[in-house]
Structures are given as structure tokens and as C-alpha cells.
């Protein structure tokens, strides 16, 4: 394969990726069989008393989930979360049953409830593979040492029943792929730019 052909193949794949990330077609939601509800262990972004709720099934190792938080979330936070119109309830998933990742997601749940979650979240968005390193173990040890409530929460994980429950309800609703957003019990799959996400919000909540 010559260099020119390779160059066009790379360009074509890049254009397909951009098109997938910025889909301008009207999204087609799927009505769920089972109602999605908020749980105490969920990670909540925004005012807990906001009048509208968007549920998000996500994985830190999902590229498009990280795109959402890097590209869509800042404007969403500014215009909807910080103004009290909306809250984003994240249900973290790990399909691989990996102890290190399950422990990291348990920590995310605990830190979001009893500590300062922003920096931990940023670390996981930038480099989710960090959970498999000794440095991450040291970080958790430091967090737990300085906050006994978080330590108790992380250690008392009930064999990760909450996290496994997220995967079970995701599959029970026959959902596939992350991120998946649920609004008014209708599921929207995939990454959306802020403008496209805003259109969905206006359709679902008239915000």
C-alpha cells in the first residue's frame, strides 16, 4: 500500500470519527421497559433538588464518555447544572469485573458523597489506566487516611453490589454501549455535542 492510499485511508477514518462524534441527525430514543431511578450511591453533578434529571450510564474507560465530559459537560454545567435547571446522575459501569476498577468506582461513589470529587474525577477522565498503578493505591490510602468516613465507605463495599447492580439494570433494559443517557425513561445512546445535547434537553424537559 503506497503512502498516498494510506493518507486517504487515515483521512477517511478521521472524517468518520468526527461525523460519529458530531451526529447532526435527530436522535431516536428508546423507551425503557424498567424505570431508572436515583440511588444514594450514584454520582450527582449539579443541584440535587434540580427539577429535571438526566441519568448517564458511563465508564471511565469509554472514550466517548470522556469526550462528553471534556467537550459537552463544561457548557452543560454552565447553562443547566449551575443554574439549578438540571442534575446529571451518573451510574458508573465496569463490565470486566476488574477488582482495581471496581475499587476505583467505589471510591468515586464515596468521594462524591463525602469529599471533594472534582479532582478525583479529572484524574480518572484524563488517565483511567492510573487505577492499575501503585500510585493510585497510594492516592486512595492518603484520601482514606485523611477522611475516615470515605475510608469506611470504600472498605464497606458489600462486594460491590451497587456497581454490579448498575450493570444488571443496564442489561435488563437491553442497553448497549456507553455513554447512554436516560431522560423521562427514554434512552439516548452515544456521544452528543453540546448543541445536539441541548436539543434533546429542550425536547424532553422544555428547558
From TrEMBL:
Residues 1-19 form the signal peptide. InterPro entries: Thioredoxin-like_fold, Thioredoxin-like_sf. Keywords: Isomerase, Signal. The keyword Isomerase applies. Residues 40-203 form the Thioredoxin-like fold domain. It comes from the Bacteria. This is Protein-disulfide isomerase. It comes from Prolixibacter denitrificans.
Amino acid at each position: 500500500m503506497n503512502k498516498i492510499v494510506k493518507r486517504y485511508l487515515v483521512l477517511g477514518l478521521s472524517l468518520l470519527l468526527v461525523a460519529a462524534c458530531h451526529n447532526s441527525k435527530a436522535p431516536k430514543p428508546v423507551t425503557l421497559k424498567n424505570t431508572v431511578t436515583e440511588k444514594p450511591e450514584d454520582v450527582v453533578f449539579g443541584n440535587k433538588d434540580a427539577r429535571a434529571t438526566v441519568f448517564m450510564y458511563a465508564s471511565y474507560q469509554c472514550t466517548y464518555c470522556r469526550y462528553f465530559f471534556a467537550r459537552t459537560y463544561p457548557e452543560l454545567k454552565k447553562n443547566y447544572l449551575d443554574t439549578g435547571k438540571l442534575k446529571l446522575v451518573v451510574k458508573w459501569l465496569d463490565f470486566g469485573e476488574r477488582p482495581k476498577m471496581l475499587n476505583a468506582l467505589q471510591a468515586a461513589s464515596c468521594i462524591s458523597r463525602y469529599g471533594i470529587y472534582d479532582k478525583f474525577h479529572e484524574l480518572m477522565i484524563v488517565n483511567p489506566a492510573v487505577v492499575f498503578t501503585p500510585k493510585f493505591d497510594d492516592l486512595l490510602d492518603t484520601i482514606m487516611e485523611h477522611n475516615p468516613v470515605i475510608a469506611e465507605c470504600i472498605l464497606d463495599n458489600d462486594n460491590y453490589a451497587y456497581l454490579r447492580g448498575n450493570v444488571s439494570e443496564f442489561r435488563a433494559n437491553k442497553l448497549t454501549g456507553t455513554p447512554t443517557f436516560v431522560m423521562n425513561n427514554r434512552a439516548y445512546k452515544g456521544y452528543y455535542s453540546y448543541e445536539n445535547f441541548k436539543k434533546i434537553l429542550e425536547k424532553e424537559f422544555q428547558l
